[in-house]
Q: What sequence folds into this?
């Protein structure tokens, strides 16, 4: 099997070496083909997402299909600008010269995607890689098998198969892929596997982009429009794959005095959105598999936790469903406050003053997203200044990832590198500096034998002195 | 693990957490302090570089001190602009919303520098890290002990000694430092150690920048005018033996020329070498016995030795190897398969100059490709058909001086770019910040879902405002 994987990579590398992927027309054609695939096969895509995650149709449209399509359209619109070299100012020390920065493809890249947005998280990086002129191998997540096999089936029908391939599989296939030599590896997933990916990349000094997660906090001030805030929090948490999203709210921090109102507002909103029996609602994704179902239910069944549940907690093991669950004031050392929840459980932590929330957030690793609901401009400023996270959103949830002008990525444990829009193109490009000098303007002062006069001229050049430049230009000192 | 080391690093982290490294005034004060250090301690710097690699003080100014002064001046002029958040476009449908990208420091960064430009390769990344507002620990190369000692003495004297520290030592100290958690690691050196650094960084998911080298080729076209020949040869000689006697990641490693032009080139090179290097002091020495022996071994192969056209003199006591030119050593010998990093210059001949493209492509991607030519078609082909960290036409080394150009490798020559604003970006995190208001609210964002909501979303997402409004008002089915 390792040999099969090596053969696939070998073929893709030959495809890249042929030079075909560097042509503007090729890149455009591939992205158009992917856009066509999304339009023509939307039904099958939505079905696969339903099979893998019981994802509601609107979520499949909103968060996967439509975003993947936007990614294609944006790239097609901007590609002409992205591929243009960037002219750069020269300086007195290198006069006369012209300089520019040329974007070139890295070569052959590996994209490993995650199971929660299995369609989008595969397409989005591929669009970037292809826009930058690379050849790509995609390894979709095996935990979303319907989407994985859909890719293996339909992608070859649309794109250039000699340069874009899908390799399905689990740990053995991924390990075999990681042993190959890549020009870049783009990984979306968790911190544990990310470490394995980076260690494998280190063997070849392969650069990586790691899109991970973390505990994305939501700080809720009392000075807000509670009704709107509650709606946005609920749809941002449970409307995103039932909390199984890297930027879904993981926990809330609010003041002791405001907590009761917030809890009530959340309860009301939850019932309005998902009804009295949320397990029966068609608008909630299910838990991806039994493993994660167990992981989440043990968080709830943990001692000292079950009596902190203030809403929800129901589960359906056969259907792999867990209802939206709110918890209030769980003990600080409970597992639910330690690792990323990635599910429909939302603990609410209370503090005396809302500013105390900052220390709680800073005591944990840097998250992918941090949220704050407040009308208080000063609090907002302090939050932006003091909290480090991949991205930040004030008074809403998750929307920042749909803006193609914003780099999307983590920091610290939540990852390294970013993408979306032009950032995707840049993530998969090498910015090659090209400097072109003329044969005039010889600064004799550069060359030995080194005399004090030469040193003076060099100093002058460094200081930007015009006299020195003139002396240098006219070839002083004469040998 | 040495307890002292952990607490030293802890102090830097404490300084960073206190928030003081984030202010513009702190960053500026550190940059100005570095400038003062470079100006006031210049004599000691020259002494240290002479001791470590036999670098002449004019070369030391040209390649290290002067470059740093330029970089700091540039940074001081630009830093406010770099630190400013950048507003980005937001679609009308999201009104009123603002979005911006805010650069923030990563935290505490670790810098490993190399022995060949021991001052520049320590302080150039340091400048970037400070500009970006980080705390820094610098581990200079132990193979340049005088410079390492100089930095250990003077950095605490001039800079904020709690936020910027120098840790001296060899591989063992490096190992210990790698066990700690950093927010970024910047490494300049050889490939093997680069792999060790990245593997250690993987344990903490620490992002890294790895600057290694490679065999930088110089493609020399056949020039006919005396002027072109003179300028070319002088720049080639300057680009090979000027920087630390060829012990530089961007030094010219080998030449590619048409076979007819080779004899002319060899003669011109010999003459220029004689003109420039009138005394031994104008060429750096080899850094140590280990590298001297490594370079000597490259010349041991019988066929390689037979290909020497000039030079070859070795003085083991003074670690001196004179500028040496070889003509067509066999391509499978070590001198042509490994980075030379020394004063030996192989010249490889080709039938026609265009063959150089294939030659370069067949080999690992170097840090720089140099080409001396007037031929615009050849230049275009080189840029489009080869891959390297950067390309420089008609000169050598000089690209290092331009703050506007990103400096770094690709493939085998590493990854991560710096210099100028690229340094600032390398040591920053770009945080997206979106601010929404409570004012406008779209009910179709929320469940329970139905077809109407889906259709409204379809229109909203394609920014089809007209259809959206019509549908919303019930005037369109």
A:
């Amino acid at each position: 099997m390792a040999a099969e994987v090596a053969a696939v990579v070998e073929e893709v590398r030959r495809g890249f070496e042929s030079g075909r992927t560097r042509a503007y027309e090729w890149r455009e054609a591939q992205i158009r083909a992917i856009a066509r695939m999304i339009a023509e096969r939307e039904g099958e895509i939505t079905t696969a997402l339903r099979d893998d995650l019981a994802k509601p149709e609107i979520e499949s449209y909103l968060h996967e299909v439509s975003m993947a399509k936007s990614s294609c359209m944006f790239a097609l619109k901007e590609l002409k600008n992205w591929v243009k070299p960037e002219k750069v100012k020269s300086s007195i020390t290198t006069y006369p010269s012209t300089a520019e920065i040329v974007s070139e493809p890295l070569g052959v890249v590996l994209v490993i995607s995650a199971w929660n947005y299995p369609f989008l998280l595969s397409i989005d990086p591929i669009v970037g890689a292809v826009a930058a002129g690379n050849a790509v191998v995609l390894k979709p997540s095996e935990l979303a098998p319907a989407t994985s096999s859909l890719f293996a089936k339909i992608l070859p029908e649309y794109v250039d198969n000699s340069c874009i391939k899908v390799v399905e599989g689990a740990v053995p296939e991924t390990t075999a892929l990681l042993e190959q030599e890549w020009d870049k590896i783009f990984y979306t997933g968790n911190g544990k596997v990310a470490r394995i990916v980076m260690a494998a990349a280190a063997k070849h000094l392969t650069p990586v982009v790691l899109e991970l997660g973390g505990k994305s906090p939501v700080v809720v001030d009392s000075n807000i429009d509670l009704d709107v805030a509650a709606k946005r929090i609920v749809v941002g948490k449970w409307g995103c794959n039932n909390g199984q999203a890297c930027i879904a709210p993981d926990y809330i921090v609010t003041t002791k005095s405001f907590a009761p109102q917030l809890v009530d507002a959340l309860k009301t909103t939850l019932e309005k959105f998902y009804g009295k029996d949320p397990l029966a609602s068609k608008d909630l994704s299910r838990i991806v598999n039994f493993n994660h179902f167990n992981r989440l239910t043990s968080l709830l069944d943990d001692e000292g936790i079950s009596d902190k549940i203030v809403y929800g907690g129901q589960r359906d093991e056969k259907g792999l469903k867990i209802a939206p669950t709110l918890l209030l004031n769980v003990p600080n050392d409970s597992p639910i406050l330690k690792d990323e929840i990635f599910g429909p459980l939302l603990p609410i932590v209370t503090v005396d003053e809302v500013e105390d929330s900052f220390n709680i957030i800073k005591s944990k690793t840097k998250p992918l997203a941090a949220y704050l609901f407040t009308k208080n401009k000063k609090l907002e400023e302090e939050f932006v200044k003091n909290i480090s996270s991949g991205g930040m959103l004030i008074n809403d949830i998750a929307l920042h990832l749909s803006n193609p002008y914003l780099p999307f990525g983590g920091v610290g444990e939540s990852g390294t590198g970013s993408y979306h829009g032009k950032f995707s193109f840049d993530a998969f490009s090498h910015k090659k500096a090209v400097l072109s000098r003329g044969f005039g303007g010889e600064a004799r002062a550069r060359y030995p034998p080194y005399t004090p006069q030469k040193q003076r001229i060099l100093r002058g050049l460094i200081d930007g002195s015009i006299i020195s430049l003139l002396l240098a230009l006219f070839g002083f000192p004469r040998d | 693990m040495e307890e002292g080391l952990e607490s030293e690093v802890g102090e830097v982290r404490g300084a960073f957490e206190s928030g003081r490294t984030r202010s513009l005034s702190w960053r500026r004060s550190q940059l100005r302090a570095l400038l003062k250090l470079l100006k006031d301690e210049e004599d000691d710097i020259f002494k240290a570089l002479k001791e470590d690699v036999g670098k002449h003080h004019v070369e030391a100014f040209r390649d290290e001190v002067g470059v740093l002064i330029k970089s700091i001046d540039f940074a001081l002029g630009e830093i406010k602009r770099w630190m400013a958040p950048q507003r980005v476009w937001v679609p009308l449908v999201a009104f009123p919303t603002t979005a911006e990208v805010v650069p923030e420091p990563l935290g505490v960064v670790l810098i490993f520098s190399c022995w060949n430009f021991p001052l520049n390769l320590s302080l150039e990344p340091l400048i970037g890290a400070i500009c970006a507002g980080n705390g820094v620990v610098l581990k200079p190369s132990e193979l340049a002990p005088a410079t390492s000692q100089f930095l250990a003495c003077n950095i605490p004297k001039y800079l904020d000694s709690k936020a910027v520290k120098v840790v001296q030592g060899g591989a063992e100290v490096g190992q210990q430092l790698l066990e700690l958690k950093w927010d970024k690691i910047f490494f300049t050196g050889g490939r093997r150690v680069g792999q060790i650094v990245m593997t250690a960084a993987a344990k903490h998911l620490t992002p890294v920048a790895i600057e290694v080298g490679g065999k930088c080729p110089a493609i020399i076209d056949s020039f006919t005018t005396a002027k072109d020949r003179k300028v070319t040869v002088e720049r080639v000689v300057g680009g090979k033996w000027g920087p630390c006697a060829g012990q530089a990641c961007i030094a010219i490693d080998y030449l590619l020329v048409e076979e007819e032009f080779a004899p002319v080139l060899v003669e011109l090179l010999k003459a220029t070498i004689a003109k420039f290097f009138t005394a031994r002091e104008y060429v750096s020495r080899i850094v140590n016995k280990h590298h001297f022996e490594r370079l000597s071994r490259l010349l041991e192969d019988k066929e390689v030795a037979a290909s020497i056209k000039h030079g070859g003199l070795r003085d083991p006591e003074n670690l001196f190897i004179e500028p040496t030119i070889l003509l067509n050593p066999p391509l499978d010998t070590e001198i042509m398969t490994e980075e030379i990093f020394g004063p030996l210059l192989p010249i490889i001949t080709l039938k026609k100059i265009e063959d150089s493209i294939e030659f370069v492509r067949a080999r690992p991607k170097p840090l720089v490709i140099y080409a001396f030519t007037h031929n615009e078609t050849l230049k275009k082909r080189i840029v489009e058909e080869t891959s390297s960290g950067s390309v420089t036409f008609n000169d050598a080394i000089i690209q290092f001086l331009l703050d506007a150009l990103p400096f770094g490798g690709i493939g085998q020559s590493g990854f991560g770019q710096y210099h100028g604003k690229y340094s600032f970006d390398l040591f920053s995190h770009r945080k997206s910040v979106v601010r929404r208001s409570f004012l406008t609210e779209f009910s179709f964002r929320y469940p329970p879902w139905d077809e109407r909501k889906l259709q409204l979303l379809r229109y909203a997402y394609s920014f089809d405002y007209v259809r959206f409004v019509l549908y919303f008002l019930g005037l369109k089915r």
In short: The domain at 217-409 of chain A is CATH 3.40.309.10 (Aldehyde Dehydrogenase; Chain A, domain 2). Chain A has a mean pLDDT of 93. Chain A has three domains: 2-212+419-431, 217-409, 443-479.
